[in-house]
Amino acid sequence: MMQAKTPELESRTDTMNLRVAPTARIFAFSLIALALAGCRPQDFPQYPADYREYAYVTNGGSGTVTVLDVVNLRLDRELAVGQNPVAVTASLTRNEVYVVNSGAIGAQGSISVINAENNSVAATIPLHRRPVSIELDATGDMAYAANAGSNSISVVDLKARREVAQIGTGEEPATAQLSADGKTLVVANRGGNSVSLIDPASRSVRAVFEGCPGAADAVILPDSSKTFVACSGGHQVMTIALARASQTASAKTASAPAAPATAALPDRLEALLDVGRGPVQLALKPDGGEVFVSNLLSDSVSEVYNTTDEVGATYMIGDGPVRGLVTRDNALLYVANQRSQYVTIYSIDDGKRVGSVHVGDGPSALAFSAAGHLLFVVDARSGDVAVVRTSMRSLFTVLPAGRNPNAIVVKAFRVP
Question: What is the pTM of this model?
């Protein structure tokens, strides 16, 4: 995730380029033998013979993607992609993984298409200057890539392997998120301190909201009614109610009365919510009930109630929180604290910290396995991936990655 351009924030994030001492790295990998010795078969899912699951880790410093075999918990291979890969996502409809290569300064970036069935690079799709994120539509046929260096969104036909349109945004778009109904693309313009709302059907900007310094991340509620945007250059989260078309009342039936008609409503600013300093990432509960804000400069997490646009509380969580991830049962929040070697575990129902896990140096990205029994933690400074057993809330093993790993996605499927 990109961070606000304040002197304090830049000085702290400079440490992301440091490497740990060799002795620390050796110690981390020595845990593998101990972890494997204590492994019990019943602690892990029993996979059918045709089941495959891989974790893909982008390594910004080495221009590669590390592929980890989740079934056997081992390194599968390392793939060369484009220069400075910074983001990755997996298709829900085909066995493909898409890597955003930001490229060299001033040069065009690209998308590397990985065939997950044989873990090879199947295609490279040119983009514009400094792409930094990617979002897929529900069909898996179209992708939206934010080009921070070109102030635009690339619309990419993944079947045809080419860009089909470019949509202008504000300055330095950092992320683009598509609503579940497919009617709104929310773009956080980091350099422009604004939020652009795009109509994907017409590929045009329908609204712009100013006043979100360092707009860095966005989430959209599952019902597509509202978006939250982290303003990382300050201490607020912007809440925007998304446009709603008018609907006629449904016909009355014998068993139920007719529903009332709804009037059309435009996009509108609902609130600017005060959270901690340097809010850089938003973690939405799967049920859509709350958003958890990682406040990098306050070492805290703020809890936002989505129905009332209220900040319930702000909790001290760890040293430099940059990424949160909520479990599928909505019970626990895992937080990666980049200026430490710890992932903090927060109980949502109890409203308190319930533990922490010692991982590698500089944890910065998180992903669950498909079954949820493992948490993969990308450690940016030590250049590895810590594997946490969620049932035990403890470190299981550490697997190698490339230089400066920064993002991760998990893809599970069955082979024909």
Answer: 0.88
